[in-house]
Amino acid sequence: QVQLVESGGGLVQAGGSLRLSCVASGSIFSINAMGWYRQAPGKQRELVAVEASSSSASYADSVKGRFTTSRDNSKNTVYLQMNSLKPEDTAVYYCYGSIQRSRYTVSREYWGQGTQVTVSS
């Protein structure tokens, strides 16, 4: 079993900041990639930021220069620092992880339960 648990969402004014956290727990042999997706009502889930093991982080054009993802490997935790928030950033944010549970298995994709971010005008 692997669990991803997000926290840090909330309501902020436009121009404000939030920092989301996601902790991976359970049976983990290695983490190949972790990142963030978001989904607004009536829209498809979209990539926000993702960081692979040997690549720099990739960001959606809409958040470049404002959002930064980072990871604390010792805690199996990934963060999303969101600055200069806009009403268009309002969505449920989901943590994503590509995780190998043992040396004898392939990686699987895991998702957190989501945390609501609301940005008011």
Total beta strand runs: 11
Unreliable runs, pLDDT <50, ≥5 residues? none
Query: In whole angstroms, how far apart are the ends?
Result: 41 Å
> Helical proportion?
under 10%
Shape: elongated
Q: SSE order, as H and E? A: EEEEEEEEEEE
Biggest β-sheet strands, sense, barrel: 7 strands, mixed
Find the structural class using helix and strand composition. mainly beta
Report the average pLDDT across residues. 94
Query: Whole-number radius of gyration?
Result: 14 Å
Residues in β-strands, percent:
over 45%
Describe the structure.
The chain is mainly β and 121 residues long. 0% of the residues lie in helices and 58% in strands. The protein has no helices and eleven strands. The strands form two sheets. Strands 2, 4, 5, 6, 9, 10 and 11 form a seven-stranded mixed β-sheet that branches. It is elongated, with a radius of gyration of 14 Å. The model has no long low-confidence stretch (mean pLDDT 94).
Provide a compact summary of the structure.
By secondary structure, this protein is mostly beta strands.
Essential attributes:
single chain; 121 residues; mainly beta; seven-stranded mixed sheet; four-stranded antiparallel sheet
